[in-house]
Design goal:
This protein is mainly alpha-helical and 256 residues long. It has helices spanning 2-35, 98-107, 111-115, 122-154, 178-220, and strands spanning 54-57, 60-63, 70-72, 230-238, 247-255. The protein has a domain at 98-223.
Length: 256
């Protein structure tokens, strides 16, 4: 009959739903038992310390006891950053003092360029001093040799003849023209004295130039350099106190 067929169909649907729910519950219970440790006691004796066993379920740890705490295993603990560990860019600009730059350059050549942070100028200053120092030492050595030889050839002592060191050992003193040799020694002596003095003057000049460069470089650091470079020209009327009539001219302004 139709009514009994409808009840029969409804009963079969409920029975199928109950079977599926029971099957899901049994599978979940079996999976949980599979992950539970095998050494769990059936009962806890009275007075014995209560231990809270833990079971690993997936990627987390399940603690069995009064409370449940889930801690991810694959999570890495992140240490809190200290405010001193965070780097912050400073927006302050370097502002050198021209007076300090001059005094530092006067204390030691090249120190003012280091203070102005113009490090590429330091090899120029140091190289100039090294080159001039070597040239001064070499010219001074040659001056001493020719001065001693000129002094020996001008005295009357026959045992002092250092001027013969400029000639090969086979050269005899009798074959030399003393007048010609005297003039040559005097000319060479004056030549090397002049070169030595010029090297010393150049060293003083480099010293002064380094001081001026340090002062100018530090002063120009305060100069406002912008991309607005323009020149305005406009007619203007000038009033001169010497005449009663005004003068007409051009007024120009340079922006840099």
């Amino acid at each position: 009959m139709p009514i009994f067929d409808s009840y029969r169909h409804t009963f079969r649907t409920l029975a199928a739903a109950l079977c599926m729910a029971a099957t899901s519950f049994v599978c979940a219970s079996a999976q949980q038992r599979q992950h539970m440790p095998a050494n769990l006691p059936d009962s806890i004796p009275v007075g014995a310390p209560v231990e809270r066993p833990a079971a690993v379920v997936g990627d987390s740890i399940l603690v069995i006891g009064d409370s449940v705490a889930v801690t991810p295993v694959d999570t890495v603990a992140v240490k809190a950053f200290n405010r001193f560990d965070v780097w912050e860019e400073r927006e302050t600009d370097f502002n050198p003092d021209p007076t300090r730059a001059v005094w530092m350059s006067a204390l030691f050549p090249g120190l003012g360029q280091i203070y102005n942070r113009r490090y590429w100028k330091l090899p120029i200053v140091v190289g100039a001093y090294l080159g001039l120092g070597y040239a001064t030492s070499w010219n001074n050595g040659m001056l001493n040799d020719y001065t001693r030889a000129y002094r020996d050839i001008m005295d009357t002592d026959p045992s002092t003849k250092s001027y013969m060191d400029f000639f090969p050992p086979t050269t005899k003193e009798e074959d030399l023209d003393k007048t010609w040799l005297t003039n040559v020694l005097r000319t060479r002596k004056n030549f090397y004295r002049r070169n030595r003095d010029l090297c010393i003057i150049c060293m003083v000049g480099v010293y002064l130039v380094a001081m001026v460069d340090a002062y100018v470089d530090a002063s120009l650091s305060h100069f406002d350099i912008s991309s607005d470079l323009s020149m305005d020209v406009a007619p203007a009327v000038f009033i001169d106190g010497r005449t009663t009539r005004p003068s007409v001219g051009l007024l120009w302004a340079l922006t840099f």
